[in-house]
Amino acid sequence: MIRKARPEDSHQLAELCYIIWHELEVDVVKHIEKSRLLKAIEKGIVDVKYREHYSHIWVKEIDNKIAGCLIAYSGDQEEALEQAWLDLDLDQDIRQFGTPMPQREANNDEYYIETVVTFPEYRGQGVATQLMDFIMDHKKGEKFSLNCDVNNKGALHIYRKLGFESQSEFDLYGLPHYHMIFQA
User: Fold this and answer.
1) In this structure, is the dihedral angle defined by the CA atoms of residues 76, 137, 9 and 38, taken in order, positive or negative?
2) What is the CATH number of the domain that holds 33?
3) pLDDT digit string (tens) for 82-107?
């Protein structure tokens, strides 16, 4: 079942977000203990309208457990959503890093799929594809965008199969990514 995320999902969602932050080598991940950072991410999911707020998240459940999630929002909201992180009550050593993901990732005219992530034990079961199909059906008529690590062949295969095309290549937090677009 795919459904909108709820505040009570925040712990599992924070774990999923951490997977992405770790893969992107976001600065705060390198310097803050994982358990403390997970608590901060949970606050961002529930307490303020951060980019990873539960209102922007859909989850896929298998046997009543969250298997993965998709985070998406209008590209013209990205900067304001990111700045909301600074409204959180954070420890000073976390706050000193500023916003975790300050780099602009989407264009204003896009419905940006920021994250599609699956817990390792559910990979290879079509979770990411089901979430992508769901959001693309749910938001018909949108110009969708996402960024994909050029070395993530599995994700590239899924996105191309769904009709996404590479528009450009750019550096995202020190890693090469394709900016990909799908227009129905």
Assistant:
1) negative
2) 3.40.630.30
3) 999 999 999 999 999 999 999 999 99
